[in-house]
Amino acid sequence: MGSANGLIATEGKQPLFSFGLISDVQYADIPDGRSFLGVPRYYRHSILVLQRAVKEWNTKKSHKFVINFGDIVDGYCPKDQSLSTVKKIVDEFEMFNGPVYHLIGNHCLYNLPRRKLLPLLNIQSFESHAYYDFSPVPEYRFVVLDGYDISAIGWPQDHPKTLEALKFLREKNPNDDKNSPTGLVGLERRFLMFNGAVGKEQMEWLSSVLQEATKLKQKVVICCHLPLDPVASSNEALLWNYDEVMNLIHRYTCVKLCLSGHDHKGGYSIDSHGIHHRVLEAALECPAGTDAFGYAEVFDDRISLYGTDRMQSTDMYFRSSADL
Q: What positions does the domain Calcineurin-like phosphoesterase occupy (predicted)?
């Protein structure tokens, strides 16, 4: 059945629930700047984007929750202001009349170590892990991945996960500056210090969560700051072991959508197993008076993202078992 028929079939149907979303606010009380690619960044304006988002989400009155896809403050935030700036942005999120779920990103970790960051983001964690799951309604489960589980940022310098990440980068990236992709080709360009990987324990946890979701006949939405599909993202923004993670996910038919941030321009794809991948446009790159946030309506057969301004709207219909 094509999308047109799908639209007719779902017309007039009420969604099971809806939720708000935003990514890469990267606020800092500093003058505007540019990314390493020369894209303008509006550090002070991004908090206004968030404030308008919260106001809009509250106006709807029906959103079950909001998800922040990471990088709430920027790496250029003066370090003596890191703690107060993170608190300031968290307070803005708390103005939403409902639960807020946070993901961690590289810029969060440039500002604060995990042990300080996770309590501020209300991420209940064991040994500073930032992965968790929740089920807003019986039919759906959201799985939040920690894309900086194996990472050279955020953990103490002598932590096994830091040492593992640095060893990995030495093997994969010959540059002195491990944030430089110079000389790296194609998908190898993801092996940069501002990215990270999902570790072995988290992979085992993910597998067990997907097994349980399958038994409960739940549809699953995967959330990760780092994108998981090269077609939806630039190579430089991908999770180091996105292929390993997706090989695991593809063993289960319950996963319908992967949502990410990090690659500020945004992107969209449907992979070979019919899973939708939506990378969200960054709030940071909104010029004055423009926005990048949205909300999603969740149905049994699709998820429809309604974006504001720079955030593109996307209708994502699920393939049936027969299609696959």
A: 19-265
Ranges of residues in the chain with a pLDDT under 50 are 1-10
Residues 6+ apart with CB under 8 A from 218: 135, 138, 139, 140, 141, 254
**Cα–Cα nearest to 237, from 45, 21, 37:** 37
In the numeric block, the tokens 């799985």 are attached to: 143
| Chain centroid, CA 246 distance in Å | 15
Token reading at 228: 């998981």
Show Cβ contacts of residue 159 under 8 Å, excluding neighbours closer than 6 positions.
none
Element (DSSP H or E) covering residue 66? strand 65-68
Q: How far apart are CA 69 and CA 203, in angstroms?
A: 20
pTM: 0.95
What tens digit of pLDDT does each residue of 169-211 get? 999 999 999 999 999 999 999 999 999 999 999 999 999 999 9
Q: Which 3 state secondary structure label does DSSP give 241?
A: coil
Rounded CA Rg of the chain: 19
Neighbours of 176 (CB within 10 A): 7
pLDDT of the residue at 6 = 36
